[in-house]
Amino acid sequence: MKILCLHGVGSSGSICESQFRAFLKLADPSYDFVFTEGPALSERGPGMGAYFEGPFYSHTTGYSPDEMADALDHLDTTIEELGPFDGILGFSQGAALALSYMYQRQVGGEPVPFRFFLCFSSVIPFSADAGYCQNIIQRLCALQWDMTVTPSADESLLTRDERLFCDVMLRTVIAAKKKGAALPEYSMDVYNQDDGSKAPRIMHAQLLEEKLQIPTVHVTGKRDFDFMHNMSDIAHGMCEERLTRKLEHSGGHQPPQKDAEVKSVIRAMEWAISQSEKMPIHRL
Question: Is 224 a catalytic residue?
Answer without folding.
Answer: yes
